[in-house]
Inverse folding.
């Protein structure tokens, strides 16, 4: 039976159902809206366990966005999914360099992924940035290098690549970088999860 | 430990790992590459059970794409994720009407979702189309209406909205429409899943 519900109420009702299903499960209030939005995006309750946050990562992300920071991502899908109306209202923009010709060329020449090269390109932006990695573990490995060499200092790293090769390891690596992080531990994640985490923070600033 | 692997080999290795994990599990050979690509996109093995296919849905989708058909989707994220280079090489294109001003206006006036209105708009395209729904159950409900009224005849419906309100029901509904379908039964799905299914078919035509 299809329930008759006003479009504006669908999301509210969804969050109520998620809260019911989570039941007695205690979530850190600071992280709660991020976790619930990821579950809303995936219908996958594993994220209630998988998502790990450095201390006050959400507050730091929100604070950075409020002050006007950009978001760098490794997929056009995440870029498409992030709420650009709110972000631009805060003087931020989303960058994805994956399809740039110079990035493809350099990646081919060096025999590394475009994702890695695109993180190097992003490190040259003269702006505070949140890095939202939803696909490529090599992006996280590149970020770790850049941070270690003092070439970039992300406001926050959203480390949620998905997959089977180096994904688990790259996420563990990024948690050792002394940079605020939100990571989906294990194999799961994705562009949709990266965008959902960005939006969960943006919606706490403005709807 | 980060494994050193050539960028070109990452996907191949990922599919090998997915095959290993699936173990003895028998997949219908026609559906296998679709199922494995969805798992590759989500790292979620539930899709080995959730994905249901009408008879020869994959062959019909591939055949339609070969002949030159468009893809209509309900999110900009799915549009961003579908391989447009291959699709355009086959004389197809991707449409997403969700952000169109006329769609927003009409949805507001009628008190229905933009997704429903955008399916009605798509039904007026004078082209064979695959419908790939990754977000809005109301898009599937609208499609069912349009099909019943003889206003659209999709080549294939990819019905993989995600969520908690009317999602499960809308998928069951679309399986009764006498149209080829690929559906992710239950709550799970998403734009990433919709795009992965389209790409799994496109990659069987061309890489």
């Amino acid at each position: 039976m299809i329930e008759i519900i006003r479009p504006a109420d669908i999301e509210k009702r969804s969050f109520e159902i998620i809260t019911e299903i989570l039941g007695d499960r205690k979530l850190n209030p600071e992280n709660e809206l991020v976790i619930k939005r990821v579950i809303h995006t995936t219908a996958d309750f594993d994220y209630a366990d998988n998502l790990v946050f450095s201390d006050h990562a959400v507050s730091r992300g929100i604070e950075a966005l409020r002050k006007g920071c950009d978001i760098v991502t490794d997929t056009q899908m995440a870029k498409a999914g992030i709420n650009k109306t709110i972000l631009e209202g805060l003087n931020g923009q989303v960058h994805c360099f994956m399809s740039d010709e110079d990035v493809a060329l350099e990646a081919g020449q060096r025999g590394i992924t475009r994702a890695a090269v695109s993180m190097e390109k992003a490190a040259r932006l003269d702006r505070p940035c949140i890095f939202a990695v939803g696909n490529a573990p090599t992006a996280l490995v590149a970020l770790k290098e850049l941070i270690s060499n003092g070439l970039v200092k992300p406001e926050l790293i959203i480390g949620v690549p998905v997959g089977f090769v180096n994904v688990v390891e790259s996420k563990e690596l990024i948690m050792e970088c002394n940079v605020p992080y939100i990571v989906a531990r294990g194999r799961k994640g994705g562009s949709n999860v990266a965008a959902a985490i960005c939006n969960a923070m943006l919606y706490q600033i403005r709807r």
Remarks:
- Chain B touches chain A through 47 residues (CB under 8 Å).
- Chain B is about 55% helix and 10% strand.
- The two ends of chain B are 31 Å apart (CA to CA).
